Amino acid sequence: MQSQLEKAIETLKQGGLILYPTDTVWGIGCDATNANAVRKVYQLKQRDDSKALICLVNNYSMLERYVDNVPKIAYTILDIADQPTTVIYDAPAGIAENLVAEDNTLAIRIPDHEFCQKLIKYFGKPIVSTSANIAGQPTPKSFKEIGDAILKGVDYVVNLQSENKNAKPSTIIKLSNSGEVKIIRE
């Protein structure tokens, strides 16, 4: 796993795209603070850049560095969640502008996955995580279902195909600084 981490981190530092296992589905990732890298993700997925992408952080400390005001309820939701849960926060900071939604929000997840945790920790910054498919196509449930356009379109493929166990997208909850809680995807 160490050599996979090193190669993935080097690719991220160079503004490249990686294909990697997450706590949900296989993801296309990049440095979430690099607008050019984020643009490449949208181009590869042929996705409208008005549709937001998810960002991964490795712990509450990193979350608090990139969200101006984390609502207290977020910690409770994340602590009791029994499945991967992505939370949409108001007023992200220090993130590539083209990753922030039009309403000034950002979807963030703290993955419960050894490779992702180590990748984010050693990279030291959030990474983008979006399903490894062209927009509008079915989300691949396993590595072997990932299409050639995606495999050829990334700069590095993490070779840990047996690592992904969940194979379904995360629950998404939107929290506003006013205290409103809304379930976007179960």
From TrEMBL:
Catalytic activity: L-threonine + hydrogencarbonate + ATP = L-threonylcarbamoyladenylate + diphosphate + H2O
Primary localisation category: cytoplasm
A GO biological-process term: regulation of translational fidelity
Keywords, sorted A to Z: ATP-binding, Cytoplasm, Nucleotide-binding, Nucleotidyltransferase, Transferase, tRNA processing
Example of a GO MF term: tRNA binding
Assigned GO CC terms: cytoplasm
Places the protein is found: Cytoplasm
EC nos: 2.7.7.87
InterPro entries associated with the record: DHBP_synth_RibB-like_a/b_dom, Sua5-like_dom, TC-AMP_synthase_SUA5
SUPFAM superfamilies documented for this protein: YrdC/RibB (SSF55821)
Record PROSITE patterns: YRDC
Domain YrdC-like: 2-186
Key word tRNA processing present: yes
Family, as annotated: Belongs to the SUA5 family.
UniProt xrefs under PANTHER family: SUA5, THREONYLCARBAMOYL-AMP SYNTHASE
Protein name: L-threonylcarbamoyladenylate synthase
Organism per entry: Olleya aquimaris
